[in-house]
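Possible regression after last week's pipeline update?

I re-ran a chain I had predicted before the update to compare outputs. Posting the input and the new output here so someone can diff against the archived version. Not blocking, just want to make sure nothing changed silently.
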Amino acid sequence: MKQVLFSLVLAMAAIPALACDLYFKSEDVCLNVKWEVLPPARANGTMLLTFTDAKDAGRVVTPKYTPNVILWMTSMGHGSKPVTLNFVEEGKFRSTNVFFVMGGPWDIKFQLKDGNNVVEEVVQKIKI
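New output (post-update):
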């Protein structure tokens, strides 16, 4: 029984994405998104993005690749105006001008980019 429990603990430790809100496999980092201002439709919002080491969730880290945020309304096939992303401090970025042009279901695409190339993208769904 102890062997089974030990094996289960080891298996869970090998899956860092379970402990992350959003997980970027390419850099083995977690992303925590905190709304500072959750906007209604047609108003600006603000998010604080915090990246942490997936193996040590308390350790804030800056990703090697450049973070990017895109707002996309899949049901209508369009996005919104570009979101502004500014470096705050180690591993933390503030996303401003988060503007949903209309109410409904939206995808917030969090990306890590190398120049113009998207290295990895994770999506968070939200209804406005």
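Follow-up from reviewer: compared with the archived run. The domain at 2-127 is CATH 2.60.40.10 (Immunoglobulin-like). Marking as no regression found.
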